[in-house]
């Protein structure tokens, strides 16, 4: 019987499967599901490889048997690390970066830079993500539902048991009754949003469609929780231009966005500038080649999302298409536990390329690569690198950062909403 799901969905289901205690196979996965798993930033020695030590390379794919339930097991044999696939056969090209390191062109317009950020830089980015980027005026995923203290992470470090009240407790009786009635009326009717790409609609149309947006509805059932519990429930922080998740577009109701962190913008510009884009786009048709020569002068990230993953979290296949320039670089930084990242094409029927992204890795998506489906079906449990584990000389803040990341992963991604020279008018 032919599987009704496209290849990308089948690959997602395979890697996120938790029907047994065994880890999903990374070796010998059928090409109908995905291409061979690439782990381009793994250490030379097995003993230094947290992914291998955790047993992620221990299983080879076995086709499911119809009518037979998966065998429950807690065994995690390490086995032998799979050899690197033949890069040339897999269409992967290595390129020399301006800082002397090696990068890899893993798909059209997509460059993976293994281990770009060293230990000190990773610690600084983790600290900024948790302690700075979670502060106002940056919106957080929980803002709609909870009256969050402005110093959430400071309290996580010093007073994690402090209670935080849900916003619905602030409502008077009439407002609560009105919102309850509206929630009952719209229960189960949440529409699936299929928004046209912003670069085809244009600024004025995006702005017009968002004019009636009044924000997401708060939960009327949320209970009081501790700061420590809520710090584990935060799913994202928004930097710069505010992204409206329910409309899949940016809020252009103001001329001036929330300031984007200058240090992060500088790091993103630097990483874009070390890539030899002429080599990345060598052989690419002119109509599919962006004006990369200008990026060294005018690439300016002005929006971003910090994704906070707990070990059971996933990110389903999607395409980022809310920016008005759909070809400029999206810089994605991995921190903490490793993740299995699926990078596809513009068609979910095409088998995706699985990449293991480790702490300190940077993936840049540009050009046609910006229109490729991608997602994170699995955070690799027990893969936290040794350099992010607690040390006796850690400061109190760094100790709290390491306590949070001990069961988590952070992805910081930055992008540019507008083409150079474009001036939005609210």
Automatic annotation (TrEMBL):
It holds the Pfam family 2OG-FeII_Oxy_2. Binds 1 Fe(2+) ion per subunit. It comes from the Eukaryota. One of its GO terms (cellular component) is nucleus. Fe cation binds at residues 318, 320, 374. Residues 300-412 form the Fe2OG dioxygenase domain. InterPro entries: Alkb, AlkB-like, AlkB-like_sf, Oxoglu/Fe-dep_dioxygenase_dom. Its cofactor is Fe(2+). Residues 64-90 are annotated as: Disordered. Residues 76-90 have a biased composition (Basic and acidic residues). Keywords: Dioxygenase, Iron, Metal-binding, Oxidoreductase. One of its GO terms (molecular function) is metal ion binding. This is Fe2OG dioxygenase domain-containing protein. It comes from Cutaneotrichosporon cavernicola. The lineage of its organism: Eukaryota, Fungi, Dikarya, Basidiomycota, Agaricomycotina.
